[in-house]
Amino acid sequence: MVKICCIGAGYVGGPTMAVIALKCPSIEVAVVDISQPRISAWNSDHLPIYEPGLDDVVKQCRGKNLFFSNDVEKHVAEADIVFVSVNTPTKSQGLGAGKAADLTYWESAARMIADVSKSAKIVVEKSTVPVKTAEAIEKILTHNSKGINFQILSNPEFLAEGTAIQDLFNPDRVLIGGRETPEGLKAVQTLKEVYAHWVPEERIICSNLWSAELSKLAANAFLAQRISSVNAMSALCEATGADVSQVSHAVGKDTRIGPKFLNASVGFGGSCFQKDILNLVYICECNGLPEVANYWKHVIKINDYQKARFVNRIVSSMFNTVSGKKIGILGFAFKKDTGDTRETPAIDVCRGLLVDKAQLSIYDPQVSQDQIQKDLTMVKFDWEHPVLLKPASPTALKQVSFAWDAYEASKDAHGICFLTEWDEFKTLDFQKIYDNMQKPAFVFDGRNVVNPDKLRQIGFIVYSIGKPL
Ligand code: NAD
Ligand code: UGA
Q1: Contacts of 132 (CB under 8 A, 6+ apart)
Q2: Cβ pair 261, 226 in contact under 8 A
Q3: Which of 30, 126, 129, 409 could, after both became Cys, cross-link 75 (CB 3.0–4.6 A)?
Q4: What's the gap in Å between 401 CA and the centre of ligand 2?
Q5: What is the CA(416)–ligand 2 centre distance, in A?
Q6: Which positions are tagged coiled coil (predicted)?
Q7: In percent, how much of the chain has pLDDT > 90?
Q8: pLDDT value at position 386?
């Protein structure tokens, strides 16, 4: 029986390994982590992450061929294939602060693998890492390994949160990069055989290590670039009376462009787009390519502009002041069907409104009150100027309350803002909401979830990203 161990039981490690266990009953999979609460949650009925379909997959294999454990060293020592899926955040201090990837967790995992290994292993980069990381990892492993053979593979993950299980069951592609030596090719083949249990062979792409590492950064940069492109258009639509949904539809009908990922929004969030583009920018700068670096930087600049533009629109529409006015915040997660708030645009929008002294009532079906408080008071890093951005002060938190549903959040409010496109928001009773709000009642739709015409008929003043006012 092949044994797999995955270091890092997070949004990627947990779901990815659960699906491998489900699809490969002959493989034993252990997911290990240094965090005890995380592992306890994986072993409980309340998994540490919310992901549609995940509970079901975990229930089917946990205790059979899928195990979650804090005994990191034991499981690594026993494994034939070790996936490393630890977090790789942006460095917050020192060389490259604000842009470069912080590989501290990766390096410590690699050193531990070298320490505890007694047999040959395939070590798989699952985390998103800078190009050439495999070379650094190889050095750490081979210089510490008492002659044990390690093959390093790059197998970046392309799942999106909220659709992780679907993406893993039916991936557009699986990418495996390895050394072009006989041992490297054999390792690639071994990993290919794991995925071949359920992924059609033509969707398993093999490449050299550096192409695989760079393809992951490139894919995220291209995806984020599409959103910034449509968001840039949304500003022009508002200025000219065009409707961004109609523009996206017309543009996306061109088969060379395609219809997906062209939804204008208050901005992209999530733990990876900004981090990975900054990582790309840093690599370009280090390689003497400032023009290329600047090109990608602008994708993030437009995203920051879009969030700031949304806040400005709210304040200016409400007669240039939101001081003391209740604003209902509907949705806090960075997208629907996840409880993840990392880099969610809601943080920037709420902070912006708090500076203007608004009273916020926040509702999200999956995000806890504690998490929102942490996010609003967390120290954030300004990627462009490596300085810390001021978090919301503890006094500002007195301006924040939490609601059980959208109706409570909007009761007596002057305005409501849609910041996540949860399905339940599409079927709200807007007449009831309108009746219970202060007048004039404003709606600011950062996700194009409402029908502006219908809401205007009720009496709302509606601002939707990229739509005629
Ligand atoms: P995460 O923070 O949810 O999980 C990482 C886990 O690694 C944490 O539980 C942490 O405790 C653990 N960890 C850190 N150092 C460790 C060590 N030395 N030993 C054992 N455990 C350790 O992160 P994530 O969202 O799963 O992302 C992981 C990687 O995958 C990142 O590089 C990210 O860019 C990439 N990625 C993420 C997504 C996504 O949707 N979140 C998608 C594709 C790729
Ligand atoms: C993204 C990529 O889609 C995954 O392929 C990748 O593996 C992952 O990053 C990663 O490397 O972490 P994720 O961030 O989970 O996945 O979710 P997306 O669906 O890509 O959404 C990201 C953000 O963009 C969200 O805030 C979403 O609301 C926003 N978005 C997305 C738009 O504003 N408009 C769109 O048309 C699509």
Answers
A1: 210, 213
A2: yes
A3: 30
A4: 28
A5: 24
A6: none
A7: 91
A8: 54
DSSP 8-state symbol, 425: G
In single-letter form, the type of residue at position 412 comes to D
ipTM of the complex model: 0.98
Q: Which is the closest atom of ligand 2 to the Cα of 157? A: 7
Nearest residue by C-alpha to atom 27 in ligand 1: 87
pLDDT of residue 385: 65
pTM for the predicted model, two decimal places: 0.96
Q: pLDDT tens across 335-361, in order?
A: 999 999 999 999 999 999 999 999 999
pLDDT at 387: 53
**Test site for ligand 1: of 6, 34, 70, 87, most ligand atoms within 8 A of the Cβ:** 87
Q: What CA–CA distance (Å, rounded) separates 95 from 102?
A: 10
Catalytic residue among 6, 24, 206, 272: 272
- Binding site as annotated, residues for NAD(+): 8-13, 33, 38, 86-90, 127-128, 161, 272-275, 342
> What residues contact 458, with CB distance under 8 A and at least 6 apart?
430, 431, 434
237 is catalytic: no
Judge whether residue 389 has pLDDT over 70.
no
Per-residue pLDDT tens for 118-133? 999 999 999 999 999 9
Cα gap 460→452, rounded to integer Å = 9
- Residue closest to 142 by CA, chosen among 199, 134, 233, 30: 134
CB 231 within 8 A of CB 302: yes
CA dihedral 336, 432, 318, 392 (to 10 degrees): -50
